[in-house]
Fold this sequence. Notes:
Number of helices: 12
CATH topology of the largest domain: Heat Shock Protein 90
Largest sheet: 5 strands, antiparallel
Structural class: alpha+beta
CATH superfamily of the largest domain: Histidine kinase-like ATPase, C-terminal domain
Number of strands: 13
Shape: elongated
Oligomer: single chain
Strand content: 15-25%
Radius of gyration: 40 Å
Order of helices and strands: HHHEEHHHEEEHHEHEEHEEHHEEE
Amino acid sequence: MYQKRSIGQVVFRLMWIYAPFGILGYAAGFFIEASFAFCFLIIGIHYWQLHKLTHWLWHQRGIYPPKALGVWSSVFDGIYSQQKRNAKKRNDLSALVRRFRLGAEALPDGVVIYDETRHIFWCNKIAQDMLGLQWPADKGIRIDNLIRMPEFIDYLDDQAYHEPLEIPSPTNENHTYEIRVVPFETDKWTVIVRDITQLNQLEQMRKDFIANVSHELKTPLTVMRGYLEMTKDFCDIDEPMWNKAHKMMSEQTTRMDDLVSQLLSLSKIEQQGADVEMQELDVAALLNVLAEEAKSLSGGKHTIVTDIDPTLKVMGNQSELRSAFSNLVFNAVRYTPQDGQIKIKWNLTKSGKAKFSVKDTGVGIDPAHIPRLTERFYRVDEARTRQTGGAGLGLSIVKHALAHHKSKLEISSEVGKGSTFSFRFPKSLVRQHIQPQ
């Protein structure tokens, strides 16, 4: 074991070793020669120990050090101790890597790790089966050279990893995968691949069920409304109880009919997918019509202001966009108290996108509710929504309609001050016609 010595102790030890040589040399009359002989002997001993050290480090396979003299014994022991510590760290690290790989192999999802140049660093067995990768043959190959789907390559190029990507399976056309990319360390990314085929099938079953039920309910509701209107005009009963019951039946039938109509609209939008018929739309004209309808719905209780660019048009589906615009405008009227202000704005942003916004001075929305507003049937205030006739489907319709136009609903709100609902159309859909002066 190494013992720390002071300079005085080292000098004393050297003098103690040198003393016999000095005394014998002095007695024989060869003091200088004896001193040189002592120096050469010391140098030779150190050189030999250095040679043993080099041979042990570079040529011997064993980790145990050879025997050494003096201070070299401490040097050998120190190196040996350091080697044992390094070996333990390597073993611990290897065990950690093995546990990580075993854990990754046990995951139900495919995992691929690639570096900043998109070269594959590692993948688990499920990823090999799902993506058709071959390990270790594909190690070091760019992932976009192995998965050559344009949407996947665009996803990597855009680096918009906050949203997952759905792609068809490269190995089975009947399966659909969800791709998520997560940063891993400073220069690596993890691709997580999940099979969502069953989820999509269940979602499609739900959509079909809602569409079928809504369609089947439409006819009996129409019949009920017809008979209620007929009894109102031709029935001779004039009692308060009957009038109240008739009014309630009419209101609830109308409410149910509106709900079914919204469900049918939502189902139609969902069934269409992204392949919708596009045409150039005069959004300014549409918004002016909706503003007049909003004034009629308001009944003079609100101030409705418009700031609309008449030259700004977009490519879109007329039915879906009218539904999106009208839901947002009419919601502002329904949820803004009397004497409140509603501002409808349609303009071109500095980035070249077309932006629509409707701002109100209503009751506002608690931030906790905002992430869920576009869910089907989600309502912030059940009592108030029931009074206004809302079913919690309007914003869900807006969400799906905007998705077909590469847009997303943005919501900002402050309780007691009002809300702003807005969205932007990408430059690829914008058409602007400059009017002659």
